[in-house]
């Protein structure tokens, strides 16, 4: 499969520094320039607009080395400024396509593993919420039994959240690496890859990479991991139960007494 990517000066939306529009690839010394093309390069053609050039490559697998303009080309003083600019644009385009191919290859298997983990989390979280709502219809004499059921549901939800967070951290890191290579304007969302695999990841919570490694990750209720969001919800539920216990004068249901 042939991949094409249109670029302009600056590159479509990659926010790269302004460069003059590259001249046609049939420049003064096409033979000299040709030996510096990327191995998967096919051709460069004028785009719909004068400032755009469309670069075509054979399909990247993601297993190749990151495309970099050859050092020999950087040292070659026989290349014109226009030829050097054209080669630079070519390798910029190649890196974008390569980064997307690599992300698809690396993230695909993880997304497939994450799908059942998210489903398990959703079921456990729904059960916890349902168990908490049952307090509104639980008789006073059975509140302690209901508390036991709630803590069991909380633990199940925490286990499910931690399992998903473990794989979400890896996915987040891979996505950040792709953006670092291609730039934010040429990012490939994980949800897009999931959709290509027939998965619906529209409601998955994958935090930014630092959320999994920052100092706040060790503090309960702080951070933006799935487990952090769950802890905030659990703490809010317990505060509500403790408030009711205080109003009812039940000393056995103070915050310290709750499991």
* Strand-residue proportion: 5-15%
Give the number of helices: 6
Number of beta-strand segments: 3
Structure classification? mainly alpha
Radius of gyration: 27 Å
**Averaged pLDDT:** 86
Q: Helix and strand succession? A: EHEEHHHHH
Global morphology: elongated
Q: Strand order across the biggest sheet?
A: 1-3-2
Tag the structure with descriptive keywords.
51% helix; single chain; three-stranded antiparallel beta sheet; 259 residues; mainly alpha; 3 strands
Structure description:
There is one protein chain. The protein has 259 residues and is mainly alpha-helical. It is built from six helices and three strands. The protein has a three-stranded antiparallel beta sheet, covered by helices on one side. The longest helix is centred in the middle third of the chain and has 53 residues, at 81-133. The chain starts with a strand and ends in an 11-residue tail after the last helix.
Give the gist of this structure:
With about 260 residues, this protein is mostly helical.
Question: What is the secondary structure topology, with strand pairs?
Answer:
Elements: E1 2-8, H1 30-34, E2 41-46, E3 52-58, H2 71-75, H3 81-133, H4 143-182, H5 190-196, H6 226-248
Antiparallel strand pairs: 1-3, 2-3
Helix pairs in contact: 3-4, 4-6
């Amino acid at each position: 499969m042939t991949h094409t990517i249109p670029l302009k000066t600056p590159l479509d939306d990659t926010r790269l520094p302004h460069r003059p529009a590259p001249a046609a690839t049939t420049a003064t010394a096409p033979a000299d320039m040709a030996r510096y093309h990327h191995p998967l390069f096919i051709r460069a053609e004028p785009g719909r607009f004068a400032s755009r050039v469309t670069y075509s490559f054979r399909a990247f697998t993601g297993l190749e080395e990151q495309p970099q303009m050859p050092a020999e080309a950087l040292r070659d003083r026989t290349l014109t400024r226009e030829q050097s600019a054209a080669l630079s644009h070519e390798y910029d385009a190649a890196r974008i396509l390569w980064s997307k191919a690599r992300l698809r290859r690396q993230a695909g298997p993880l997304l497939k593993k994450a799908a059942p983990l998210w489903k398990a989390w959703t079921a456990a979280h729904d059960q916890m919420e349902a168990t908490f709502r049952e307090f509104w219809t639980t008789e006073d004499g059975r509140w302690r039994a209901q508390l036991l059921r709630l803590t069991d549901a909380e633990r199940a939800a925490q286990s499910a959240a931690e399992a998903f967070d473990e794989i979400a951290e890896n996915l987040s890191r891979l996505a950040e690496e792709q953006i670092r290579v291609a730039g934010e304007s040429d990012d490939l969302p994980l949800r897009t890859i999931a959709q290509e695999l027939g998965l619906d990841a529209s409601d998955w919570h994958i935090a930014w990479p630092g959320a999994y490694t920052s100092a706040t990750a060790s503090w309960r209720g702080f951070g933006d991991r799935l487990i952090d969001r769950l802890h905030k919800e659990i703490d809010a539920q317990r505060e509500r139960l403790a408030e009711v216990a205080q109003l009812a004068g039940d000393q056995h249901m103070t915050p310290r007494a709750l499991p």
